[in-house]
């Protein structure tokens, strides 16, 4: 009965069936989806719109910004600032929390990575947008405080991502499982195409950037060495490897056919224990993956339980098929 429902129709239907979904949260998710339609339209024009290439600036993390990092950030901020639904925002591309004028203030905090995998944009490989929704403690009555932005992953009210691939798909959780909505360009709507997504518990496929191997912790190096030994090694199976360099595409693949994705601890710079950012990459992906029956860890602790100290905090990430993530955690626990 729900098959083929449009995103907002489906969320309203869920609310009627007893799911705890405030109307404002439904509106917020819907507004984010509209923004992502604008982003996919911009991204898909590629060279035609003259937006490929670098912008000549760096973000707070010292990364070179692509023109499209800035353009997609501005689309999201511009749209959400006047939605009447958010009190503040946190973006990968903006150093400080973004406040919303009192007149337009809503109840929620929106954290986002406007363009994930942006190193892939010039070479025409999938990119995406990741978002996470938190509540502001004072609602729309006052500016949110720093503590409102730095909430643990377990406090997320919703999380999702949109992958701009051969088709544009929105993946969403509000804490009641994971659903996928494919953008039907003929009608301009996200339509429910997969309900109750479930990640296979076991896998033979791993994703990791092997070029960093010498900087990982010993147990991570050992686990990958053992994967490479295949059926003759202690793990007893022949693995396949993938690396897209777009987390959105890797997590999408894992949701569809299982797998393990790792961007592990890296010893190069103690201030950057991982590459991925907790608030708008690791936490929303953890919420989605856990809701689909998978597991997410730093290899030492559950990501969504981590204390938050910084808007742009980086964390090691190991996520995906449950039994494989448990194996990686065990390699690390044994070494203690
Ligand atoms: P972003 O484009 O938002 O900075 O994120 C890129 C991230 C993630 O999507 C991907 O898994 C990883 O960085 C790729 O890293 P490498 O460049 O080391 O492959
Ligand atoms: Mn990213
Ligand atoms: Mn990004």
Bound molecules: 2,5-anhydro-1,6-di-O-phosphono-D-glucitol, manganese (II) ion
Order of helices and strands: HHEEHEEEEHEEEEEHEHEEHEEEH
Into how many domains do the coordinates divide? 2
CATH hierarchy: architecture of the largest domain: 2-Layer Sandwich
How many distinct beta strands?
17
Please tally the helical runs, counting DSSP H or I stretches of 4 or more residues: 8
Provide a quick synopsis of the model.
This protein is α+β, with helices and mostly antiparallel strands.
Give structural notes.
The chain is of the alpha+beta class. The protein has two domains: 7-194, Fructose-1,6-Bisphosphatase, Chain A, domain 1, CATH 3.30.540; 205-334, D-Maltodextrin-Binding Protein, domain 2 (3-Layer(aba) Sandwich). It has eight helices and 17 strands. The chain has helices at 7-16, 23-45, 67-81, 146-149, 218-229, 247-257, 278-291, 322-334; strands spanning 54-58, 64-66, 86-91, 98-99, 108-116, 127-135, 158-164, 168-173, 178-184, 189-194, 205-207, 240-241, 260-263, 276-277, 295-297, 314-315, 317-320. The strands form four sheets. An eight-stranded mixed beta sheet has the order 4-3-5-6-7-8-9-10, sandwiched between helices. Strands 12-11-13-17-15 form a five-stranded mixed beta sheet, sandwiched between helices. The radius of gyration is 19 Å and the shape is globular. The model has no long low-confidence stretch (mean pLDDT 96).
